[in-house]
Protein backbone atom coordinates (compact mmCIF):
# COMPACT_ATOMS: atom_id res chain seq x y z
CA UNK A 1 0.00 0.00 0.00
CA UNK A 2 1.49 3.26 -1.00
CA UNK A 3 1.95 5.88 1.58
CA UNK A 4 -0.61 8.56 1.50
CA UNK A 5 1.16 11.88 1.44
CA UNK A 6 0.33 13.79 4.60
CA UNK A 7 -2.38 16.26 3.91
CA UNK A 8 -1.40 19.86 4.20
CA UNK A 9 -3.56 20.93 7.06
CA UNK A 10 -1.67 24.06 7.95
CA UNK A 11 -3.44 27.08 6.62
CA UNK A 12 -4.58 27.83 3.17
CA UNK A 13 -1.70 29.67 1.62
CA UNK A 14 -1.95 33.38 2.09
CA UNK A 15 -3.03 35.09 -1.15
CA UNK A 16 -0.05 36.47 -3.04
CA UNK A 17 0.65 40.13 -2.53
CA UNK A 18 -0.89 42.40 -5.17
CA UNK A 19 2.50 43.23 -6.63
CA UNK A 20 3.42 39.56 -6.92
CA UNK A 21 0.09 38.74 -8.49
CA UNK A 22 0.53 41.57 -10.96
CA UNK A 23 3.98 40.33 -11.90
CA UNK A 24 2.67 36.77 -12.31
CA UNK A 25 -0.03 37.92 -14.74
CA UNK A 26 2.26 40.35 -16.51
CA UNK A 27 4.96 37.72 -17.04
CA UNK A 28 2.59 35.47 -18.97
CA UNK A 29 2.25 38.09 -21.68
CA UNK A 30 5.18 37.60 -24.04
CA UNK A 31 4.72 40.90 -25.88
CA UNK A 32 4.66 42.82 -22.61
CA UNK A 33 7.85 41.11 -21.44
CA UNK A 34 9.59 42.05 -24.69
CA UNK A 35 8.39 45.61 -24.22
CA UNK A 36 9.66 45.72 -20.66
CA UNK A 37 13.02 44.30 -21.71
CA UNK A 38 13.42 46.95 -24.41
CA UNK A 39 12.42 49.63 -21.88
CA UNK A 40 15.09 48.38 -19.48
CA UNK A 41 17.65 48.66 -22.28
CA UNK A 42 16.48 52.19 -23.12
CA UNK A 43 16.67 53.27 -19.49
CA UNK A 44 20.18 51.83 -19.31
CA UNK A 45 21.19 53.79 -22.43
CA UNK A 46 19.65 56.95 -21.05
CA UNK A 47 21.32 56.71 -17.63
CA UNK A 48 24.75 55.71 -18.90
CA UNK A 49 24.67 57.70 -22.15
CA UNK A 50 27.93 59.49 -21.29
CA UNK A 51 29.69 56.19 -20.66
CA UNK A 52 28.45 54.01 -23.50
CA UNK A 53 28.26 56.57 -26.31
CA UNK A 54 31.55 56.32 -28.21
CA UNK A 55 31.73 60.09 -28.88
CA UNK A 56 30.11 63.28 -27.72
CA UNK A 57 26.77 63.88 -29.50
CA UNK A 58 27.97 67.27 -30.66
CA UNK A 59 31.54 66.40 -31.70
CA UNK A 60 31.98 67.09 -35.41
CA UNK A 61 34.39 64.97 -37.45
CA UNK A 62 34.73 67.37 -40.36
CA UNK A 63 36.52 64.93 -42.68
CA UNK A 64 33.94 62.19 -42.09
CA UNK A 65 30.64 63.84 -42.97
CA UNK A 66 27.77 61.66 -44.22
CA UNK A 67 29.65 58.37 -43.98
CA UNK A 68 27.49 55.24 -44.26
CA UNK A 69 27.35 52.72 -41.39
CA UNK A 70 30.51 50.62 -41.36
CA UNK A 71 33.05 48.92 -39.14
CA UNK A 72 36.06 50.32 -40.98
CA UNK A 73 37.73 53.12 -39.06
CA UNK A 74 37.92 56.53 -40.72
CA UNK A 75 40.83 58.55 -39.46
CA UNK A 76 41.06 56.25 -36.43
CA UNK A 77 37.35 56.51 -35.59
CA UNK A 78 34.70 53.85 -36.11
CA UNK A 79 31.23 55.10 -36.97
CA UNK A 80 29.05 52.06 -36.47
CA UNK A 81 25.88 53.66 -37.80
CA UNK A 82 27.55 56.30 -39.91
CA UNK A 83 27.72 60.06 -39.51
CA UNK A 84 25.34 62.93 -40.17
CA UNK A 85 25.82 65.86 -42.60
CA UNK A 86 28.22 67.67 -40.27
CA UNK A 87 30.16 64.56 -39.30
CA UNK A 88 28.60 63.74 -35.92
CA UNK A 89 28.47 60.10 -34.88
CA UNK A 90 24.91 58.78 -35.23
CA UNK A 91 25.24 56.07 -32.58
CA UNK A 92 26.23 58.67 -30.00
CA UNK A 93 23.41 60.99 -30.98
CA UNK A 94 20.84 58.22 -30.86
CA UNK A 95 22.02 57.14 -27.40
CA UNK A 96 21.84 60.67 -26.07
CA UNK A 97 18.47 61.04 -27.78
CA UNK A 98 17.18 58.18 -25.62
CA UNK A 99 17.84 60.29 -22.56
CA UNK A 100 15.94 63.22 -24.05
CA UNK A 101 12.96 61.09 -25.06
CA UNK A 102 12.65 59.50 -21.62
CA UNK A 103 12.97 62.89 -19.93
CA UNK A 104 10.26 64.26 -22.22
CA UNK A 105 8.06 61.33 -21.23
CA UNK A 106 8.74 61.67 -17.50
CA UNK A 107 8.24 65.44 -17.38
CA UNK A 108 5.12 65.65 -19.52
CA UNK A 109 3.43 62.58 -18.05
CA UNK A 110 4.41 63.68 -14.53
CA UNK A 111 2.96 67.16 -14.98
CA UNK A 112 -0.15 65.91 -16.69
CA UNK A 113 -0.76 63.12 -14.19
CA UNK A 114 -0.38 65.44 -11.21
CA UNK A 115 -2.66 68.09 -12.65
CA UNK A 116 -5.12 65.54 -13.94
CA UNK A 117 -5.39 63.73 -10.60
CA UNK A 118 -6.00 66.94 -8.68
CA UNK A 119 -8.62 68.23 -11.13
CA UNK A 120 -10.20 64.80 -11.40
CA UNK A 121 -10.46 64.48 -7.60
CA UNK A 122 -12.03 67.93 -7.42
CA UNK A 123 -14.53 67.11 -10.16
CA UNK A 124 -15.34 63.78 -8.55
CA UNK A 125 -15.72 65.04 -4.97
CA UNK A 126 -17.66 68.16 -5.88
CA UNK A 127 -20.00 66.45 -8.25
CA UNK A 128 -22.80 68.65 -9.51
CA UNK A 129 -21.17 71.87 -8.36
CA UNK A 130 -19.84 74.67 -10.53
CA UNK A 131 -16.27 73.41 -10.08
CA UNK A 132 -17.05 70.10 -11.71
CA UNK A 133 -18.98 71.74 -14.50
CA UNK A 134 -16.20 74.17 -15.39
CA UNK A 135 -13.46 71.54 -15.24
CA UNK A 136 -15.33 68.95 -17.28
CA UNK A 137 -16.56 71.34 -19.98
CA UNK A 138 -13.04 72.68 -20.38
CA UNK A 139 -11.78 69.12 -20.76
CA UNK A 140 -14.48 68.43 -23.37
CA UNK A 141 -13.32 71.41 -25.38
CA UNK A 142 -9.71 70.24 -25.19
CA UNK A 143 -10.69 66.73 -26.24
CA UNK A 144 -12.54 68.05 -29.28
CA UNK A 145 -9.20 69.06 -30.81
CA UNK A 146 -6.86 66.27 -31.93
CA UNK A 147 -3.78 66.05 -29.71
CA UNK A 148 -1.15 67.12 -32.21
CA UNK A 149 -3.26 70.06 -33.39
CA UNK A 150 -3.73 71.27 -29.83
CA UNK A 151 -0.03 70.77 -29.09
CA UNK A 152 0.85 72.79 -32.18
CA UNK A 153 -1.51 75.54 -31.05
CA UNK A 154 0.01 75.64 -27.57
CA UNK A 155 3.58 75.68 -28.93
CA UNK A 156 2.55 78.49 -31.26
CA UNK A 157 1.74 80.50 -28.14
CA UNK A 158 4.64 79.48 -25.92
CA UNK A 159 7.19 79.57 -28.72
CA UNK A 160 9.18 76.63 -30.15
CA UNK A 161 11.56 74.73 -27.88
CA UNK A 162 11.94 71.50 -25.99
CA UNK A 163 10.60 72.74 -22.65
CA UNK A 164 7.57 74.35 -24.24
CA UNK A 165 6.90 71.20 -26.24
CA UNK A 166 6.84 69.26 -22.98
CA UNK A 167 4.36 71.69 -21.42
CA UNK A 168 2.22 71.53 -24.56
CA UNK A 169 2.14 67.75 -24.44
CA UNK A 170 1.31 67.78 -20.74
CA UNK A 171 -1.64 70.09 -21.43
CA UNK A 172 -2.81 67.93 -24.31
CA UNK A 173 -2.83 64.77 -22.18
CA UNK A 174 -4.53 66.44 -19.24
CA UNK A 175 -8.19 65.67 -20.17
CA UNK A 176 -7.49 61.94 -20.29
CA UNK A 177 -6.15 61.89 -16.74
CA UNK A 178 -8.91 64.15 -15.45
CA UNK A 179 -11.70 62.04 -16.91
CA UNK A 180 -10.11 58.80 -15.81
CA UNK A 181 -9.59 60.02 -12.25
CA UNK A 182 -13.08 61.46 -12.02
CA UNK A 183 -14.66 58.28 -13.32
CA UNK A 184 -12.69 56.11 -10.90
CA UNK A 185 -13.42 58.45 -7.98
CA UNK A 186 -17.16 58.38 -8.68
CA UNK A 187 -17.02 54.59 -8.69
CA UNK A 188 -15.16 54.45 -5.38
CA UNK A 189 -17.17 57.13 -3.56
CA UNK A 190 -20.26 54.93 -3.66
CA UNK A 191 -18.51 52.16 -1.73
CA UNK A 192 -18.92 51.42 1.95
CA UNK A 193 -15.28 51.81 2.97
CA UNK A 194 -15.35 55.46 1.91
CA UNK A 195 -18.51 56.00 3.92
CA UNK A 196 -16.87 54.27 6.91
CA UNK A 197 -13.80 56.44 6.65
CA UNK A 198 -15.98 59.54 6.42
CA UNK A 199 -17.92 58.49 9.53
CA UNK A 200 -14.65 57.87 11.33
CA UNK A 201 -13.99 61.56 10.84
CA UNK A 202 -11.62 61.66 7.87
CA UNK A 203 -11.42 65.13 6.32
CA UNK A 204 -11.89 65.74 2.62
CA UNK A 205 -8.18 65.87 1.82
CA UNK A 206 -7.56 62.64 3.69
CA UNK A 207 -10.48 61.00 1.91
CA UNK A 208 -9.19 62.22 -1.44
CA UNK A 209 -5.56 61.28 -1.28
CA UNK A 210 -5.36 58.59 1.39
CA UNK A 211 -8.63 56.69 1.08
CA UNK A 212 -9.87 57.01 -2.48
CA UNK A 213 -6.86 57.74 -4.66
CA UNK A 214 -4.91 54.50 -3.98
CA UNK A 215 -7.93 52.54 -5.13
CA UNK A 216 -8.04 54.47 -8.39
CA UNK A 217 -4.38 53.81 -9.12
CA UNK A 218 -4.69 50.90 -11.55
CA UNK A 219 -6.21 52.71 -14.55
CA UNK A 220 -3.96 55.72 -13.89
CA UNK A 221 -0.83 53.58 -14.01
CA UNK A 222 -1.91 52.09 -17.32
CA UNK A 223 -2.79 55.48 -18.79
CA UNK A 224 0.51 56.93 -17.59
CA UNK A 225 2.48 54.16 -19.31
CA UNK A 226 0.56 54.60 -22.54
CA UNK A 227 0.94 58.37 -22.07
CA UNK A 228 4.70 57.95 -22.35
CA UNK A 229 4.32 56.58 -25.85
CA UNK A 230 2.09 59.39 -27.05
CA UNK A 231 4.28 62.00 -25.35
CA UNK A 232 7.40 60.69 -27.09
CA UNK A 233 5.58 60.44 -30.42
CA UNK A 234 4.15 63.96 -30.19
CA UNK A 235 7.45 65.43 -29.02
CA UNK A 236 9.19 63.83 -31.99
CA UNK A 237 6.50 65.17 -34.32
CA UNK A 238 6.90 68.68 -32.87
CA UNK A 239 10.68 68.36 -33.19
CA UNK A 240 10.22 67.28 -36.78
CA UNK A 241 8.05 70.31 -37.52
CA UNK A 242 10.69 72.56 -36.00
CA UNK A 243 8.43 73.41 -33.06
CA UNK A 244 10.06 71.19 -30.44
CA UNK A 245 13.70 70.58 -29.60
CA UNK A 246 15.95 72.76 -31.75
CA UNK A 247 19.16 71.61 -33.48
CA UNK A 248 21.83 70.74 -32.49
CA UNK A 249 19.96 68.96 -29.66
CA UNK A 250 20.14 65.23 -30.43
CA UNK A 251 16.37 64.80 -30.25
CA UNK A 252 15.18 62.09 -32.65
CA UNK A 253 12.47 64.13 -34.37
CA UNK A 254 14.68 67.14 -34.99
CA UNK A 255 17.58 64.87 -36.09
CA UNK A 256 15.25 63.51 -38.71
CA UNK A 257 14.12 66.94 -39.82
CA UNK A 258 17.64 68.30 -40.19
CA UNK A 259 18.63 65.36 -42.38
CA UNK A 260 15.64 65.62 -44.72
CA UNK A 261 17.50 67.06 -47.68
CA UNK A 262 19.85 64.08 -47.71
CA UNK A 263 17.08 61.52 -47.97
CA UNK A 264 18.04 60.57 -51.52
CA UNK A 265 21.76 60.18 -50.89
CA UNK A 266 22.10 59.01 -47.28
CA UNK A 267 19.34 56.69 -46.11
CA UNK A 268 20.85 56.16 -42.66
CA UNK A 269 20.51 59.74 -41.42
CA UNK A 270 16.75 59.57 -41.98
CA UNK A 271 15.86 55.96 -41.19
CA UNK A 272 17.77 55.43 -37.94
CA UNK A 273 16.25 58.18 -35.75
CA UNK A 274 12.77 57.16 -36.90
CA UNK A 275 13.49 53.54 -36.06
CA UNK A 276 14.56 54.63 -32.57
CA UNK A 277 11.24 56.46 -32.12
CA UNK A 278 9.23 53.49 -33.36
CA UNK A 279 11.02 50.98 -31.12
CA UNK A 280 10.63 53.18 -28.04
CA UNK A 281 6.94 53.92 -28.64
CA UNK A 282 6.26 50.27 -29.41
CA UNK A 283 7.97 49.19 -26.18
CA UNK A 284 5.83 51.56 -24.10
CA UNK A 285 2.65 50.45 -25.87
CA UNK A 286 3.45 46.76 -25.36
CA UNK A 287 4.22 47.31 -21.69
CA UNK A 288 1.13 49.46 -21.20
CA UNK A 289 -1.14 46.88 -22.84
CA UNK A 290 0.42 44.15 -20.69
CA UNK A 291 -0.09 46.19 -17.54
CA UNK A 292 -3.71 46.84 -18.44
CA UNK A 293 -4.40 43.16 -19.02
CA UNK A 294 -2.67 42.24 -15.75
CA UNK A 295 -4.35 44.96 -13.69
CA UNK A 296 -7.82 44.55 -15.07
CA UNK A 297 -8.82 40.90 -15.42
CA UNK A 298 -12.08 41.89 -17.10
CA UNK A 299 -10.22 43.12 -20.15
CA UNK A 300 -8.26 39.91 -20.56
CA UNK A 301 -8.49 38.33 -23.93
CA UNK B 1 -35.65 61.36 -33.74
CA UNK B 2 -35.78 65.13 -34.10
CA UNK B 3 -35.53 65.53 -30.35
CA UNK B 4 -32.45 63.33 -30.36
CA UNK B 5 -30.76 65.39 -33.07
CA UNK B 6 -31.61 68.64 -31.31
CA UNK B 7 -30.25 67.34 -28.03
CA UNK B 8 -26.94 66.43 -29.69
CA UNK B 9 -26.85 69.81 -31.41
CA UNK B 10 -27.40 71.59 -28.10
CA UNK B 11 -24.37 69.79 -26.68
CA UNK B 12 -22.23 70.92 -29.60
CA UNK B 13 -22.89 74.64 -29.19
CA UNK B 14 -21.02 75.15 -25.87
CA UNK B 15 -18.11 73.06 -27.13
CA UNK B 16 -17.86 75.16 -30.25
CA UNK B 17 -18.06 78.43 -28.31
CA UNK B 18 -15.42 77.09 -25.95
CA UNK B 19 -13.09 76.35 -28.82
CA UNK B 20 -13.51 79.81 -30.36
CA UNK B 21 -12.70 81.33 -26.96
CA UNK B 22 -9.74 79.00 -26.40
CA UNK B 23 -8.26 79.67 -29.84
CA UNK B 24 -8.81 83.40 -29.52
CA UNK B 25 -7.16 83.49 -26.09
CA UNK B 26 -4.25 81.33 -27.27
CA UNK B 27 -3.51 83.49 -30.29
CA UNK B 28 -3.66 86.77 -28.31
CA UNK B 29 -0.91 85.35 -26.15
CA UNK B 30 1.56 84.60 -28.94
CA UNK B 31 4.74 86.53 -28.25
CA UNK B 32 6.82 88.21 -30.93
CA UNK B 33 5.98 90.84 -33.45
CA UNK B 34 4.47 89.68 -36.75
CA UNK B 35 5.98 92.51 -38.76
CA UNK B 36 9.51 91.70 -37.59
CA UNK B 37 8.94 88.03 -38.23
CA UNK B 38 7.47 88.54 -41.68
CA UNK B 39 10.13 90.96 -42.88
CA UNK B 40 13.04 89.36 -41.03
CA UNK B 41 14.18 92.83 -39.97
CA UNK B 42 14.80 94.16 -36.53
CA UNK B 43 15.14 97.68 -35.14
CA UNK B 44 13.49 99.30 -38.16
CA UNK B 45 12.32 102.90 -38.16
CA UNK B 46 8.77 103.74 -37.20
CA UNK B 47 8.06 104.90 -40.75
CA UNK B 48 9.28 101.68 -42.35
CA UNK B 49 7.43 99.65 -39.72
CA UNK B 50 4.17 101.37 -40.59
CA UNK B 51 4.74 100.84 -44.29
CA UNK B 52 5.35 97.15 -43.73
CA UNK B 53 2.24 96.89 -41.56
CA UNK B 54 0.32 98.29 -44.50
CA UNK B 55 2.12 96.09 -47.02
CA UNK B 56 1.32 92.93 -45.09
CA UNK B 57 -2.25 94.09 -44.73
CA UNK B 58 -2.07 94.05 -40.93
CA UNK B 59 -3.74 97.47 -40.63
CA UNK B 60 -7.01 96.23 -42.06
CA UNK B 61 -9.84 95.40 -39.66
CA UNK B 62 -9.47 92.03 -37.96
CA UNK B 63 -12.71 90.87 -39.52
CA UNK B 64 -11.34 91.48 -43.02
CA UNK B 65 -8.10 89.65 -42.20
CA UNK B 66 -10.08 86.84 -40.71
CA UNK B 67 -12.38 86.66 -43.75
CA UNK B 68 -9.37 86.46 -46.00
CA UNK B 69 -8.05 83.50 -44.09
CA UNK B 70 -11.36 81.76 -44.10
CA UNK B 71 -11.33 81.99 -47.89
CA UNK B 72 -7.72 80.78 -47.97
CA UNK B 73 -8.82 77.90 -45.80
CA UNK B 74 -11.70 77.20 -48.17
CA UNK B 75 -9.28 77.07 -51.09
CA UNK B 76 -6.96 74.60 -49.36
CA UNK B 77 -9.57 72.58 -47.56
CA UNK B 78 -10.56 70.32 -50.51
CA UNK B 79 -6.95 69.12 -50.85
CA UNK B 80 -6.93 67.97 -47.23
CA UNK B 81 -10.38 66.42 -47.53
CA UNK B 82 -9.45 64.53 -50.69
CA UNK B 83 -6.32 63.17 -49.02
CA UNK B 84 -8.23 62.28 -45.83
CA UNK B 85 -11.05 60.57 -47.71
CA UNK B 86 -8.70 58.39 -49.72
CA UNK B 87 -6.75 57.64 -46.54
CA UNK B 88 -9.84 56.56 -44.60
CA UNK B 89 -11.10 54.46 -47.53
CA UNK B 90 -7.72 52.74 -47.58
CA UNK B 91 -7.88 52.24 -43.81
CA UNK B 92 -11.38 50.74 -43.92
CA UNK B 93 -10.80 48.56 -46.97
CA UNK B 94 -7.70 47.01 -45.44
CA UNK B 95 -8.52 47.32 -41.74
CA UNK B 96 -11.99 45.76 -41.58
CA UNK B 97 -11.10 42.53 -43.44
CA UNK B 98 -7.86 42.26 -41.45
CA UNK B 99 -9.79 42.60 -38.19
CA UNK B 100 -12.35 39.99 -39.30
CA UNK B 101 -9.61 37.52 -40.24
CA UNK B 102 -7.89 38.08 -36.90
CA UNK B 103 -11.12 37.47 -34.99
CA UNK B 104 -12.22 34.41 -36.94
CA UNK B 105 -8.75 32.88 -36.81
CA UNK B 106 -8.19 33.90 -33.21
CA UNK B 107 -4.91 32.82 -31.59
CA UNK B 108 -3.43 31.61 -34.86
CA UNK B 109 -0.44 33.10 -36.67
CA UNK B 110 -2.95 35.13 -38.74
CA UNK B 111 -4.25 36.78 -35.61
CA UNK B 112 -0.76 37.45 -34.26
CA UNK B 113 0.36 38.92 -37.59
CA UNK B 114 -2.61 41.29 -37.80
CA UNK B 115 -2.34 42.36 -34.17
CA UNK B 116 1.44 42.78 -34.38
CA UNK B 117 1.15 44.84 -37.53
CA UNK B 118 -1.59 46.99 -36.08
CA UNK B 119 0.32 47.66 -32.88
CA UNK B 120 3.31 48.67 -35.00
CA UNK B 121 1.11 50.89 -37.15
CA UNK B 122 -0.36 52.46 -34.05
CA UNK B 123 3.13 53.21 -32.71
CA UNK B 124 4.38 54.57 -36.03
CA UNK B 125 5.78 58.09 -36.25
CA UNK B 126 3.93 58.86 -39.47
CA UNK B 127 6.35 61.57 -40.61
CA UNK B 128 9.02 58.89 -40.66
CA UNK B 129 6.74 56.32 -42.24
CA UNK B 130 5.97 58.79 -45.04
CA UNK B 131 9.70 59.29 -45.62
CA UNK B 132 10.27 55.52 -45.75
CA UNK B 133 7.53 55.21 -48.37
CA UNK B 134 9.17 57.98 -50.40
CA UNK B 135 12.55 56.26 -50.04
CA UNK B 136 11.17 52.91 -51.20
CA UNK B 137 8.63 53.80 -53.89
CA UNK B 138 9.73 57.20 -55.18
CA UNK B 139 13.50 57.21 -54.78
CA UNK B 140 14.14 53.46 -54.95
CA UNK B 141 11.61 52.12 -57.41
CA UNK B 142 10.63 55.37 -59.12
CA UNK B 143 6.96 54.35 -59.16
CA UNK B 144 5.44 57.50 -57.69
CA UNK B 145 6.30 61.19 -57.60
CA UNK B 146 7.94 62.56 -54.46
CA UNK B 147 5.63 65.48 -53.71
CA UNK B 148 2.81 67.74 -54.79
CA UNK B 149 -0.67 67.02 -56.14
CA UNK B 150 -0.23 67.00 -59.91
CA UNK B 151 2.59 66.93 -62.46
CA UNK B 152 3.27 70.45 -63.75
CA UNK B 153 2.39 69.74 -67.39
CA UNK B 154 -1.27 69.37 -66.45
CA UNK B 155 -3.49 72.31 -65.74
CA UNK B 156 -6.87 71.37 -64.37
CA UNK B 157 -9.45 74.05 -63.61
CA UNK B 158 -10.74 73.56 -60.07
CA UNK B 159 -14.44 72.70 -60.05
CA UNK B 160 -14.89 70.61 -56.95
CA UNK B 161 -11.35 71.14 -55.66
CA UNK B 162 -10.85 67.37 -55.67
CA UNK B 163 -8.13 66.71 -58.19
CA UNK B 164 -9.36 63.19 -58.94
CA UNK B 165 -12.88 64.42 -59.71
CA UNK B 166 -11.77 67.54 -61.55
CA UNK B 167 -9.43 65.65 -63.87
CA UNK B 168 -12.23 63.23 -64.70
CA UNK B 169 -14.59 66.14 -65.37
CA UNK B 170 -11.98 67.59 -67.71
CA UNK B 171 -11.77 64.13 -69.32
CA UNK B 172 -7.98 64.24 -69.01
CA UNK B 173 -6.79 60.68 -68.41
CA UNK B 174 -3.15 61.64 -68.04
CA UNK B 175 -3.99 64.19 -65.37
CA UNK B 176 -6.16 61.67 -63.53
CA UNK B 177 -3.35 59.14 -63.50
CA UNK B 178 -0.92 61.80 -62.35
CA UNK B 179 -3.26 62.92 -59.56
CA UNK B 180 -3.78 59.35 -58.45
CA UNK B 181 -0.06 58.57 -58.37
CA UNK B 182 0.55 61.70 -56.30
CA UNK B 183 -2.15 60.64 -53.88
CA UNK B 184 -1.17 57.03 -53.17
CA UNK B 185 1.79 57.47 -50.82
CA UNK B 186 0.43 60.32 -48.67
CA UNK B 187 -2.87 58.46 -48.33
CA UNK B 188 -1.10 55.31 -47.14
CA UNK B 189 1.00 57.32 -44.69
CA UNK B 190 -2.03 59.18 -43.35
CA UNK B 191 -4.25 56.09 -43.29
CA UNK B 192 -1.85 53.90 -41.31
CA UNK B 193 -2.87 54.90 -37.77
CA UNK B 194 -6.64 54.79 -38.53
CA UNK B 195 -6.02 51.44 -40.22
CA UNK B 196 -4.42 50.07 -37.07
CA UNK B 197 -7.22 51.40 -34.87
CA UNK B 198 -9.95 50.08 -37.17
CA UNK B 199 -8.36 46.62 -37.42
CA UNK B 200 -8.14 46.35 -33.61
CA UNK B 201 -11.68 47.60 -33.15
CA UNK B 202 -13.12 45.26 -35.78
CA UNK B 203 -11.36 42.30 -34.20
CA UNK B 204 -12.56 42.92 -30.66
CA UNK B 205 -16.10 43.80 -31.74
CA UNK B 206 -16.24 40.70 -33.95
CA UNK B 207 -15.00 38.49 -31.11
CA UNK B 208 -17.75 39.83 -28.90
CA UNK B 209 -20.47 39.25 -31.48
CA UNK B 210 -19.25 35.74 -32.29
CA UNK B 211 -20.03 34.78 -28.69
CA UNK B 212 -23.66 35.91 -28.97
CA UNK B 213 -26.55 33.49 -28.84
CA UNK B 214 -27.88 34.43 -32.25
CA UNK B 215 -24.58 33.47 -33.84
CA UNK B 216 -24.80 30.09 -32.13
CA UNK B 217 -28.38 29.76 -33.34
CA UNK B 218 -27.33 30.55 -36.89
CA UNK B 219 -24.62 27.91 -36.66
CA UNK B 220 -27.03 25.42 -35.15
CA UNK B 221 -29.54 25.77 -37.93
CA UNK B 222 -26.81 24.89 -40.37
CA UNK B 223 -25.66 28.20 -41.84
CA UNK B 224 -22.22 27.92 -43.46
CA UNK B 225 -19.17 29.43 -41.81
CA UNK B 226 -18.92 32.25 -44.30
CA UNK B 227 -22.62 33.02 -44.03
CA UNK B 228 -22.48 33.15 -40.24
CA UNK B 229 -19.57 35.59 -40.30
CA UNK B 230 -20.60 37.75 -43.23
CA UNK B 231 -24.37 37.91 -42.66
CA UNK B 232 -25.10 37.25 -39.01
CA UNK B 233 -22.04 38.53 -37.20
CA UNK B 234 -20.55 41.26 -39.36
CA UNK B 235 -23.54 43.59 -39.48
CA UNK B 236 -23.73 43.78 -35.72
CA UNK B 237 -20.00 43.90 -35.29
CA UNK B 238 -19.74 46.91 -37.58
CA UNK B 239 -21.74 49.26 -35.34
CA UNK B 240 -18.84 50.21 -33.05
CA UNK B 241 -16.55 50.24 -36.08
CA UNK B 242 -18.66 52.98 -37.70
CA UNK B 243 -18.16 55.12 -34.60
CA UNK B 244 -14.45 54.41 -34.65
CA UNK B 245 -14.20 55.47 -38.28
CA UNK B 246 -16.00 58.71 -37.44
CA UNK B 247 -13.67 59.40 -34.54
CA UNK B 248 -10.67 59.06 -36.85
CA UNK B 249 -11.47 62.43 -38.43
CA UNK B 250 -9.47 64.11 -35.68
CA UNK B 251 -6.56 61.73 -36.19
CA UNK B 252 -6.66 62.42 -39.92
CA UNK B 253 -6.59 66.19 -39.54
CA UNK B 254 -3.78 66.07 -37.01
CA UNK B 255 -1.90 63.59 -39.19
CA UNK B 256 -2.43 65.88 -42.17
CA UNK B 257 -0.14 68.43 -40.49
CA UNK B 258 2.73 65.95 -40.76
CA UNK B 259 1.79 64.16 -43.97
CA UNK B 260 1.22 67.36 -45.91
CA UNK B 261 4.53 68.78 -44.70
CA UNK B 262 6.42 65.71 -45.93
CA UNK B 263 4.69 65.36 -49.28
CA UNK B 264 4.39 69.12 -49.94
CA UNK B 265 0.64 68.60 -50.22
CA UNK B 266 -1.04 72.01 -50.55
CA UNK B 267 -3.65 71.50 -47.83
CA UNK B 268 -4.68 72.98 -44.52
CA UNK B 269 -2.06 71.15 -42.44
CA UNK B 270 0.92 72.44 -44.37
CA UNK B 271 -0.58 75.93 -44.39
CA UNK B 272 -0.95 75.83 -40.62
CA UNK B 273 2.69 74.87 -40.05
CA UNK B 274 3.88 77.56 -42.46
CA UNK B 275 1.66 80.10 -40.74
CA UNK B 276 3.18 79.30 -37.34
CA UNK B 277 6.69 79.72 -38.68
CA UNK B 278 5.62 83.06 -40.22
CA UNK B 279 3.86 84.12 -36.99
CA UNK B 280 0.78 84.65 -39.08
CA UNK B 281 -1.70 85.00 -36.21
CA UNK B 282 -4.90 85.16 -38.17
CA UNK B 283 -3.99 82.15 -40.28
CA UNK B 284 -3.18 80.02 -37.24
CA UNK B 285 -6.38 81.10 -35.57
CA UNK B 286 -8.49 80.57 -38.66
CA UNK B 287 -6.89 77.25 -39.48
CA UNK B 288 -7.35 75.77 -36.03
CA UNK B 289 -10.86 77.11 -35.71
CA UNK B 290 -11.98 75.82 -39.10
CA UNK B 291 -10.41 72.42 -38.44
CA UNK B 292 -12.06 72.19 -35.03
CA UNK B 293 -15.42 73.13 -36.56
CA UNK B 294 -15.12 70.39 -39.14
CA UNK B 295 -14.17 67.83 -36.50
CA UNK B 296 -17.07 68.80 -34.25
CA UNK B 297 -19.43 68.74 -37.22
CA UNK B 298 -18.34 65.28 -38.30
CA UNK B 299 -18.56 63.97 -34.75
CA UNK B 300 -22.11 65.30 -34.59
CA UNK B 301 -23.02 63.54 -37.84
CA UNK B 302 -21.48 60.31 -36.55
CA UNK B 303 -23.43 60.64 -33.31
CA UNK B 304 -26.68 61.09 -35.19
CA UNK B 305 -25.90 58.24 -37.58
CA UNK B 306 -25.15 56.05 -34.62
CA UNK B 307 -28.58 56.84 -33.27
CA UNK B 308 -30.10 55.94 -36.63
CA UNK B 309 -28.30 52.58 -36.77
CA UNK B 310 -28.87 51.72 -33.16
CA UNK B 311 -32.27 52.68 -31.67
CA UNK B 312 -31.07 51.75 -28.18
CA UNK B 313 -28.84 54.84 -28.17
CA UNK B 314 -31.58 57.09 -29.48
CA UNK B 315 -33.95 56.31 -26.67
CA UNK B 316 -31.41 56.24 -23.89
Profile the largest sheet of chain B.
none
Number of strands of chain A: 0
Shape summary of chain B: globular
Q: How far apart lie the N and C ends of chain B?
A: 12 Å
Largest interchain contact: A-B, 45 and 45 residues
Radius of gyration of chain A: 24 Å
Would you count the extended β strands of chain B for me?
0
SSE pattern of chain B: HHHHHHHHHHHHH
Characterise the protein shown here.
The complex is a heterodimer of chains A (301) and B (316). Chain A is mainly α and 301 residues long. Chain A is built from 12 helices and no strands. Chain B is globular and about 85 Å long. Chain B has 316 residues and is an all-alpha fold. Chain B contains 13 helices and no strands. Chain B has helices at residues 2-28, 34-39, 46-55, 62-104, 109-122, 126-140, 163-169, 173-210, 213-220, 225-263, 268-278, 281-309, 311-314. The A-B interface holds A 31, 137-138, 140-142, 144-149, 152-157, 159, 229, 233, 236-237, 240-243, 253, 256, 260, 263-264, 267, 270-271, 273-275, 277-278, 281-282, 285-286, 289 and B 14-15, 18-19, 22-23, 26-27, 29-32, 119-120, 122-125, 127-129, 131-132, 134-135, 139, 250-251, 253-255, 257-258, 261, 272-273, 276-277, 284, 288, 291-292, 295-296, 299.
Amino acid sequence: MSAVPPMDVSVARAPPSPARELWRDFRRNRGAMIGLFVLALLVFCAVFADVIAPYSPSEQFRDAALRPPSLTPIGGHVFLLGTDPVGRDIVSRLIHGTRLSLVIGIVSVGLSLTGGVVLGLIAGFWRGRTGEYVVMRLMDVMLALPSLLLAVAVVAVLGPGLANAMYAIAIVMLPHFVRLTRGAVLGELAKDYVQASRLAGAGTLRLMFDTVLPNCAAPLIVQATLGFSSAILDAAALGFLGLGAQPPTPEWGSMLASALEFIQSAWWVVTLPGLAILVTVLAFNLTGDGLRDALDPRLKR
Amino acid sequence: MLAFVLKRLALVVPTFLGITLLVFALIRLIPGDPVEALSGERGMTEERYQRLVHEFGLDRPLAVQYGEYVSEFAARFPATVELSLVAIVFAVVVGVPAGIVAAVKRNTPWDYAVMGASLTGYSMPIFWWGLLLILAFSVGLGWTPVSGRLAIQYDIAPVTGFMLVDSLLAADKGAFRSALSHLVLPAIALGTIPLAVIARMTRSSMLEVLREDYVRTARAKGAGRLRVVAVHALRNALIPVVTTVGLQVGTLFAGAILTETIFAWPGVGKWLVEAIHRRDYAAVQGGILCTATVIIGVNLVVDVLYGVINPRIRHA
